[in-house]
Design brief:
Helices cover 61% and strands 5% of the residues. By secondary structure, the protein is mostly helical. It is found in: Cell membrane.
Length: 231
């Protein structure tokens, strides 16, 4: 059985942990080939969406040219047209959680990556988000996580939003895997979450409260460091 603290760790770290599996799914740990192959890919691929130039992406992210090459090759293999829609994104995540329903959490994650709100994730969207999650500062990563949980993007996390997130995680992990858990466990977790993070007890968690609370949690800080230099 997972405790409330266990669920809290899942809520805060599942984004980063799943990216290891996503990178493997996209074949992004394969050896890098020649220096010019990515530029050739950019020029010769018949795609619906053509990425920006390698130099520009290198300037805008914290990836090297070789790392971008690996990322683009894997992304193109999975998404030949150059973008991934929400249904395909959900399909990728469902492979990792056959015992549960990951569709709602994948929806929230898709929304966080789809910064242009056009219903698709381009290679640029993908590497910008990945650059923050894998190479960003602690503040960068926590800001990204906060944006994920702030479902209506109004600058604060409400109990209703956190309950939606927790229910989606609960469904994704498979509630029947933990038969001793009751349906009210997600709500109990939300109350615990707010007791720790809602510093001024006004019923919402701001970005400042979120970052401050996370930084004081040694387990969260240690776990975030595990994803440094993954690729």
């Amino acid at each position: 059985m997972l405790s409330l603290d266990g669920l809290e760790m899942i809520a805060l770290l599942v984004v980063m942990g799943l990216f290891i599996k996503v990178l493997e799914q996209f074949g992004m740990f394969e050896p890098v080939g020649g220096e010019d192959s990515v530029e050739d890919d950019f020029e010769l691929s018949t795609v619906c969406h053509r990425p920006e130039s390698m130099d520009k992406l290198q300037e805008q992210t914290k990836f090297t040219k070789k790392e971008l090459q690996v990322l683009y090759r894997g992304f193109k293999n999975e998404c030949p047209c150059g973008v991934v829609n929400e249904e395909n994104f959900k399909t990728i995540y469902s492979q990792f959680f056959p015992q549960g329903d990951s569709s709602m959490y994948a929806h929230f994650l898709f929304e966080a990556f789809d910064t242009n709100k056009n219903g698709s994730i381009s290679f640029e969207d993908f590497v910008f988000g990945l650059s923050i999650i894998l190479r960003g500062t602690i503040n960068d990563r926590l800001n990204w996580a906060f944006n994920l949980y702030d479902l209506n993007k109004d600058g604060c996390i409400t109990k209703e939003e956190m309950l939606d997130i927790m229910r989606s995680i609960y469904d994704m992990m498979g509630k029947y895997t933990y038969p001793s858990m009751q349906d009210d466990v997600p709500r109990e977790h939300v109350e615990s979450f707010f007791q720790k993070m809602d510093r001024n007890k006004d019923g919402v968690v701001t970005i400042e409260e979120f970052i401050e609370s996370c930084k004081k949690d040694e387990s969260i800080m240690q776990s975030m460091q595990l994803f440094d230099n993954v690729i």
